[in-house]
Structure formats: C-alpha cells, structure tokens
Amino acid sequence: LKDYGKLLKDKDTWWFSLFYAVSFGGFVGFAGYMKVYLMNTYSLDMAVFGNEYINEANVKVIAGYFGALCIFAGAILRPFGGSTADKIGGIKSLYVFYGFVIFLLLLTASVKLPFYASIFVLFLIMANLGMANGAVFQLVPQRFSKDIGIMTGLVGCAGGLGGTALIKTLGWSKGTFDSYTEGFLIFSLVVCIAVLGLSLVKTRWRTTWGELAGGRI
C-alpha cells in the first residue's frame, strides 16, 4: 500500500493515467458501444447489406461483424504504435495518433456519413486509439522502470474507467439529445485535453528522465 501511495503522489502517474484513459478507454468504450451505435444509426443500411427484410436479429449480426472489424484494427495495430514510438518517440507518436482521433471524431460529430464511410472512419479511430495504447506503454517503463508492475495496474485501471465513462457519455448523449453528436464532441474535447497535457509535460520529461532514455520519448 505504501508503494501505491508513493506512486499516486507522483504527478506523472496521473498524466499517464489520463493518456491511457483516452487511448485504451476510448478503445474499450467504442468496442463496448459500437454495436449499439451501429444498430441505432445504420439499421436500415445493415438490413440491406444482409440482403433480407429488416429484422432485428439480422441487424445485430451485421453490426457485430462490422464492430469486430473495427475492434480488430485497434488490437492488431497496437504493436505498430509501440514500434513507431520507438522510432520517433512516444510523445511525437501520441501527438499524431491523438490528432487523427480528434479530426475523425469531429468529422463523425459534424457530418452524417454514409454507412460504409462511417465504418471506415470508425476503423481509423480504433486503429489510432490502438496505436496510441502502444505509444503510452513505450513511455511508461522508461519513466517507472522500478515500479512497472504497479504502474501497469494503475494505468490499466485508468484505461478501464475511461472506457466506462465513454460508454456512459455516448448513452447519455443518445438518451438526452437522441443523437451521438454531443458524445463524440465531449470525447474529442477530452482528447484535446490530453494533447494539451502532452504539451505541458514534454519539456520536463525530455530534460529529466527522457535524457536517460536516449531521447526516445
């Protein structure tokens, strides 16, 4: 418990928790809610895709297929995010991945995309969130090499809580406004806060423990 208390007093623990709550939380949140989102937004399109008359069972199956495709993108590309972070640094990588997520979220919130275009955008959102997961954990062991087990648990916990928060936000948006626009806008704002956080810590990180890491942050 003392070890946990010591780490929780370190402000970098909270920064990493925020970054992972955005990346992994976003991934988990969309993974958990995507089927519902697709059914509520594109049920007619998916019924046509199934080449059958509209029926709920058919729509659920098609939504599951497309949801799984997008989830697969985030899972399979996570190692690529870590590899990219090894090459150009975790901070630069997160700027890129978060930047794409913000743009794609704003696009989804502001434009009623056709079904296949929406699937492509969701695929890219999940891919960038997955790669951001890898980039975060390229940084964590460099900063907390002696406490990596505890930090993995703490940061992972933040990611799970972030996913729950996103699911709740999307559900609230649909229930309150009969639209997901507000939910996407709120999440894009949270990602913007994470980008601002990166800007606040990058100089300190690079001039302290980043130098010991060989400049790979």
What's the β-strand tally? 0
Helices, by number, come to 9
Quote the distance from N terminus to C terminus.
Answer: 30 Å
Overall pLDDT confidence: 91
- Rounded to the nearest angstrom, the radius of gyration is 18 Å
Unreliable stretches:
none
Q: What does the overall shape look like?
A: elongated
In N-to-C order, the SSE pattern is: HHHHHHHHH
Helix/strand class: mainly alpha
Question: What would you note in describing this structure?
Answer:
There is one protein chain. The protein is an all-alpha fold. It is 87% helix and 0% strand. It contains 9 helices and no strands. The chain is elongated and about 55 Å long. The protein starts with a helix and ends in a 5-residue tail after the last helix.
Descriptive keywords:
0% strand, elongated, 217 residues, mainly alpha, single chain
Which SSEs are present, and which pair or pack?
Blueprint (H helix, E strand, L loop, with lengths): L1 H7 L2 H39 L6 H21 L1 H11 L1 H21 L4 H29 L4 H30 L3 H27 L1 H4 L5
Helix pairs in contact: 2-3, 2-6, 2-7, 2-8, 3-6, 4-5, 4-6, 5-6, 5-8, 7-8
Summarize the entry for a quick read.
With 217 residues, this protein is mainly alpha-helical. It contains nine helices and no strands.
